[in-house]
Design goal:
Layout lengths: L14 H20 L1 H18 L1 H20 L18 H13 L2 H15 L10 H4 L4 H6 L2 H20 L7 H4 L1 H4 L6 H37 L5 H21 L1 H26 L2 H17 L1 H5 L10 H27 L5 H32 L5 H19 L4 H30 L12 H21 L2 H34 L10 H20 L5
């Protein structure tokens, strides 16, 4: 490991990337704050045009990403260790998975696990009758699908590409443009590379602001109920600022002292709440409904993956699947870079399967508990959560669900704390990652400057306030869709670049139990000797 002295423990800022992305973010979100009413009308039209004209593209690339990732895991390349022979994982498996899951899902998963099934009961796919028993069979299936294999599959390509570049090729450049070098070559050293990095940071701000645009109103509503005050925009902004202080402090502390500890705490507390709801709720109904919906999802996985509804034009896949895939692509580069920082010593197969399988199971657990509980309230108890959703939005639904639980006076504040920690884990990891991307290089043992981490934490707050002031789910969704369009194509470039590197480094390698960066050097040395022998006519080996 390269030793880094005290004076060089912080990496050097790449000023063109840093200021370029910062200025464009301000130009994108400032009009939302200044021209709130007019911005909303333009946003609704843009959302319709983008989602309905590119639905096939988002779905095709998401499915291709999942397929490529699974092939990579079970190919001989899956045995490649991210590091040398002596490199061991820096975190325990529990902490590693907790950081992956919390960093990529956050409190948004809990929000949608409660709210999404209601939308699907009221407006189910494939022309199914609303609020019917058949609609109930799809109430959880689509939510698990949207937070499942394909979602995590979009994350794996950047995660493996950056990890391979950093630990196997030993390139200390934690920004997307360098990982595109395998396909684009030296052109990433100029304005093309800087444009790629700037576009990715903008996409990450959009994806994170989208998550906070849903979560902050939820936390604000619950806080207002707990303290008995009206839930106004002012309260939402105060909650957002307080929340920014939490994740800003954690981000300031860094990867080991802040983010890792938050992830552990959040995982323990989340399981406590999940277990409590499972015990006091309709446990048998939960598992029965979940089992049926899991079967429906697996039976219709291909249909759901490519559903665009071009004839009936009901809008379901555009409003939901296309939005989700755009959201995940907006997060993909951040997830890939963050997972790179925590996955040293793991194999490619280990990284991919824990992302796609383990994290999908964790996501499904929340739909099993919270989603099934919401469906039971509607279908079995006759509580009209659909009307609550119409009148009070998603935060009102979550408040109604929590207030229906025993010991709600205790459950609500505990839930607020868990949501704050959960989302803070993801946001501070993103701010940390964006500040890393805006550096020239980050060697082993270095971190991005602390002031840079605080700057991006503040930028995320600014973008979130812009979305809150305009208001409406379409506004929040468009933030992801528009900012993630370039990342869709960058992900394709990353996959091709990674494949080319793998072919160059291990194309002729036999399949031992594990391949390391040391093996790569040996393969290259042998190839060099062979070429020299061919040129001189001398036999080797």
């Amino acid at each position: 490991m390269e030793q880094v002295n005290q004076h060089s423990k912080f990496a050097k800022i790449n000023l063109p990337v840093f200021w370029g992305s910062a200025i464009i973010c301000v130009l994108f979100y400032a009009p939302m704050v200044i021209f709130q009413e007019s911005a909303k009308g333009v946003i609704d039209k843009l959302m319709f045009v983008v989602t309905h004209s590119t639905d096939w593209l988002w779905e095709s690339v998401a499915f291709a990403a999942l397929t490529f990732s699974l092939w990579l895991a079970f190919s001989r390349y899956g045995n490649i260790r991210l590091g040398g022979r002596e490199d061991k994982p820096e975190f325990s498996t529990f902490t590693w998975i907790a950081m992956m899951f919390c960093g990529a899902s956050g409190a948004g998963l809990v929000y949608w696990a409660m709210v999404e099934p209601i939308f699907y009961l009221q407006g189910p796919p494939f022309g199914i009758k609303p609020m019917s028993p058949e609609a109930g069979s799809w109430a959880l299936a689509y939510g698990i699908f949207h937070w499942g294999f394909s979602a995590w599959g979009t994350f794996t390509i950047p995660a493996v590409a950056f990890s391979y570049m950093y630990y196997v090729r030993k390139r200390p450049y934690l920004y997307p443009s360098y990982a595109c070098r395998g396909l684009l070559g030296d052109c990433v050293d100029g304005w093309v590379g800087k444009a790629i990095d700037v576009l990715n940071i903008i996409g990450m701000v959009g994806g994170c602001a989208t998550a906070l645009g849903f979560v902050v109103p939820m936390i604000s509503r619950l806080t207002a109920i707990f303290f008995g005050v009206p839930d106004t925009l002012g309260v939402q902004i105060i909650v957002a600022i307080a929340f920014a202080g939490l994740y800003g402090y954690s981000c300031y502390q860094g990867l080991y002292s802040g983010i890792a500890k938050l992830a552990d705490y959040n995982t323990y507390l989340s399981f406590v709440i999940v277990l409590f709801v499972m015990i006091v709720g309709p446990t048998a109904f939960m598992f029965s409904l979940f089992s049926e919906n899991i079967g429906i999802m697996f039976q219709n996985f291909l249909r759901m993956s490519f559903y665009t509804d071009p004839i009936a034009k009901g809008g379901f896949p555009q409003d939901w699947t296309v939005f989700y895939w755009a959201w995940w692509f907006a997060w993909a580069i951040y997830v890939g870079l963050f997972f790179t920082r925590i996955s040293k010593g793991r194999t490619i197969k280990e990284l991919i399967l824990n992302m796609i399988v383990t994290c999908t199971c964790c996501s499904a657990l929340f739909y099993l508990i919270f989603g099934s509980y919401a469906v039971d309230m509607i279908m079995n108890q006759g509580i009209d959560l659909g009307m609550v959703l119409k009148e009070s939005g998603g935060p009102g639904v979550i408040a109604a669900i929590l207030q229906s639980l025993p010991l709600s006076a205790i459950v609500i504040p505990v839930f607020i704390v868990v949501m704050l920690i959960s989302q803070a884990t993801g946001v501070d990891a993103m701010a940390y990652t964006m500040s890393s991307m805006a550096c020239y290089e980050i060697k082993d043992g270095q971190e991005p400057p602390k002031w840079s981490r605080i700057f991006w934490a503040t930028m995320l707050l600014f973008a979130t306030i812009g979305l809150l002031m305009v208001g409406g789910m379409k506004v929040v969704q468009l933030s992801s869709v528009l900012t993630s369009v370039p990342i869709l194509f960058i992900t394709i470039i990353l996959a091709l670049s990674l494949y080319k590197w793998l072919q160059e480094d291990f194309g002729e390698q036999l399949r031992p139990a594990v391949l390391t960066s040391d093996d790569r050097m040996e393969v290259q040395a042998t190839a060099c000797k062979r070429k020299t022998a061919e040129d001189t006519g001398v036999s080797v080996g």
